[in-house]
Amino acid sequence: MKLSLYQRLAITVSAAFVVIAYLLLSWSSALAEQSKHQAEQKLHIELATHLANDNPLLKDGVYDKPALENLFHTLMLLGPAFEFYYLDPAGNILTYSAKPDKIKRKSVDLAPLVQLISDQQNMPIYGDDPRSLSGKKIFSAAPIYNQGNLQGYLYVIIGGEIYDSVFAQVQSDQQLQQHGLLIIAALVLVLLLLLALFRYFTVPIRTLAKDMEKLKQNKFDSAKLSLVKWQQNDDNNEVQVLGNTFVEMVEVINQQMLQLIENEKTRKELLAHLSHDLRTPLAAMQGYIETIALKGDALTAEQKERFLATVMRNGQQLKLLIDQIFELAHLEDGQVSVNLEPFPIAELVHDIVAKFSLKAQEKQITLKVTPQECSDLVHSDIAKLERILSNLLDNAIRHTPSKGEITLRIEQDNNQVTVSVSDTGTGISEQELDYIFDARYRASNASEDKNRHAGLGLAISKRLSLLLNSDIKVMSRLGQGSCFSFSLPRLANS
Fold first, then answer.
1. N or C: fewer beta carbons within 10 Å in the chain?
2. What is the pTM of this model?
3. Do 371 and 313 reside in the same domain of the chain?
4. What distance, in Å, lies between the first and last C-alpha atoms of the chain?
5. What Pfam families does this protein map onto (predicted)?
6. 345 and 467 housed in the same domain
7. Higher-scoring residue by pLDDT: 452, 116
């Protein structure tokens, strides 16, 4: 699950506070405890030695258990912070001043005692606590000799059980104060940390807000200002993602605005051209009709027939132009449905060639289909494909001079069938190839005949091919002819 910005902040601050507080408390407690033990051990390091040298029982090395117990009891009354033990040379506890159930060990490890007696520099040194199975205590120790022979050790625990219980009671009050001060310090630390973090995370937000305000003041025209460049590919930072999205949104909006301006310009130019094209046949029709109406009886039957034929021809041209305008508008709205079905492509090509054969014969143009026999099946919309091929063939006939040749070629390429229409006509210059599919664009060397043309055929064919998931490509050389081609999906069993 992806965490939000607030959740990451809360978890980070809480975890940092807990870890820092725990480490600080543990470190300070350990340091204070070690310092206290070092000071106490140094302060009482000679305690066992003085007792061993000053007390007659211990000085002479005579072991008298009742006397030693009485001595240890007296010393504990005078110094309740100490515990006294007499050990044999092996470390076994022989005498102590406590109830038997208080003693948990039979012996203690002599290595710390020997270390302390021989080296009193590296303190604190901890020895076994006889009143605990695993506890360690600071201590003072001294060897006991009798006529030069080691009789045992005087082992004095510094800060015994009574001292610990009393100190714990006093320390509880101190801990309350320390905890209170620690909580206050922690809250101040958290506050400062939160302020720093919130400042760190809100600076980009303020920067983004300033960019939005500047964009608003410039009427959402990003060309008049410089937006902040945000770091890329940082999906874990919502602010960076928001900034990148904002910049991309502004760029898309400006591109769309520029496209709308360009489309509006193109639309106005198209309307101007179409208005002229509509006005021309209308004016011709109106002129001939008015002539027939005013001079009907004065005109001969031959003149009337010629005038009416001209009116009919202009009417057909006007209808063709209007049909193409509506067809192009319908295609640009994206509301055209596609009816895909399998059919033999060769049959459609031969039907279209037959439809235009008479028109080609009038201009003495040869129409060829290569190959003559083809069994390839394609999966496409037959009506729209027929419209595309008709527009391309009509365009080829119009731009091919007399005695020219037009070839419709069907080629198989793996899972596709490519259909091309090539001619030996006037061709198109290289500079104009990128514009021939624009509505109303006419090449500088376009051929003219007795009929006016709307110039929308190629634009309609281009949009129809895109609906069929194809695209019309063109190759042409000026004065040598042109070749228009597109590809269709071929059925596997064909």
1. N
2. 0.46
3. no
4. 51
5. HATPase_c, HisKA
6. yes
7. 116
Alpha-carbon gap, residue 346 to 370, rounded angstroms: 9
**The two structure tokens encoding residue 135:** 């506890």
Positive or negative torsion for Cα 358, 364, 369, 372: positive
Q: For the chain, how many structural domains are there in total?
A: 3
Alpha-carbon Rg for the chain, nearest whole angstrom, is: 54
The string of DSSP codes covering 258-322 is: HHHHHHHHHHHHHHHHHHHHHHHHHHHHHHHHHHHHHSTTTS-HHHHHHHHHHHHHHHHHHHHHH
231: DSSP letter: P
Looking at 210-214, 230-234, 355-359, which range is the least confident one? 230-234
Cα 440 to Cα 117, 450, 471, distances in angstroms: 112, 18, 19
Identify the helix (H) or strand (E) that includes residue 366.
strand 366-370
* pLDDT tens column, 70-92: 777 777 766 677 888 888 888 89
Helix axes 5-43, 161-217, angle to 10 degrees: 150
Percentage of residues in the chain having pLDDT higher than 70: 81
More confident residue, 465 or 201: 465
